[in-house]
Design a protein that fits this description.
Blueprint lengths: L29 E8 L10 H17 L3 E8 L3 E8 L20 H20 L12 E5 L2 H13 L16
Antiparallel strand pairs: 1-3, 1-4, 2-3
Length: 174
């Protein structure tokens, strides 16, 4: 006979720690620096077809959502850096109330859309249905002014030249 123990949920032990600002509205207009990494730092995006899917899906975000503008981005062998700008333009959709202007999706939902669409396309190419492509979370930084925007743009543009020293490079990770 099987016996079961009652295990109580311990929020100090079993929870995901968020790196997001707790009171910040990530759907508000602004510029955001985003890094999305492949699961386990796998060099998946060295494969040209998978890299093309990641690039096409990133560009798709800007076409899919009227409130999204894409700025500088780069696709590295195992991660993507990009700037997403959420603006005040937003077109209606099937889930919008007729009397209210629809709100833009928050940053997390946009990154989630990118991950979902690109994962589905990559898995279709791999001939599998459920292999993960991306790590569960993502890094974001709120870009607060023009000087910061210029700095992040330069960081992204310079990233490929720094790959040999990049902490995301599994060849140098410790």
């Amino acid at each position: 006979m099987l016996e079961y123990a009652i295990v109580r949920f311990d929020p100090d032990r079993y929870h995901r720690r968020s790196i997001r600002l707790p009171a910040y509205d990530y759907a508000q207009a602004g510029a955001y620096f985003v890094t999305v990494a492949c699961l386990g730092r796998a060099l998946l995006l060295e494969e040209p077809d998978f890299r093309a899917v990641a690039e096409q899906t990133w560009i798709w975000l800007g076409r899919q959502y009227a409130f999204v503008e894409l700025d500088e981005f780069v696709i590295m062998p195992n991660h993507l850096h990009g700037i997403i700008i959420i603006n005040d333009r937003c077109r209606g959709g099937s889930r919008t109330a007729p009397t209210n202007r629809p709100r833009p999706k928050p940053l997390g939902r946009l990154v989630g859309a990118f991950k979902t669409v690109s994962t589905n396309r990559i898995n279709e190419m791999r001939g599998t249905a459920e292999l993960p492509v991306w790590q569960r979370n993502y890094y974001e930084h709120i870009i607060r002014n023009e000087a910061e925007l210029a700095h992040v743009r330069q960081y992204i543009a310079d990233n490929p030249a720094r790959w040999n020293d990049d902490p995301e490079n599994p060849a140098i990770a410790s």
